[in-house]
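Quick question: what would this complex look like in 3D?
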Amino acid sequence: DTAVSQTPKYLVTQMGNDKSIKCEQNLGHDTMYWYKQDSKKFLKIMFSYNNKELIINETVPNRFSPKSPDKAHLNLHINSLELGDSAVYFCASSQGRADLEAFFGQGTRLTVV
Amino acid sequence: AQSVTQLGSHVSVSEGALVLLRCNYSSSVPPYLFWYVQYPNQGLQLLLKYTTGATLVKGINGFEAEFKKSETSFHLTKPSAHMSDAAEYFCAVTTGGSYIPTFGRGTSLIVHP
């Protein structure tokens, strides 16, 4: 069983479209994250949820909206996709605060054309 | 505020040689430090972490790191590089009670036969 799973793994879409990436963790963790990794491998945290409550919302365009229906799921919806949104998006989870190990999903490679 | 600097975006070693990946951090409070590894087209995986206690930390795959408070460093080492160690390595810092880990920009380890 995959601990943190994301779907889809690859996503190619046109500018202006709306898309969603789903994330599920089966580790029983109460904190989940979304990270963006750019073409230079730089990792930037976007959002963090603890027990379905948003606790981190970094400087991210409001076209990006996370949704956590329950502790095991954190989905990312992106409206009006732009070329600059092309990146690899990683979901991660941890038990509690960030001082504990984070478990990462395999990533979703988003390409906007 | 916390920050991480990884010196050298690329490190190249021969198989069997010592691996040294450098990480310096900045934190106003005692830090928690992590090294993660990212293999091609995969998510990040924890190599090792320092929270409290012994400053020399051993991780998976023969890697270890030493927390040096006086030098604000947490360098990653491995006595003998293997071809399978070729990957991207990320140093990360957080603090107790924080939900926000900060990642370095990553160091790509290249291992030559």
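Answer marked as accepted. The CA atoms of residues 92 and 103 of chain B lie 4 Å apart.
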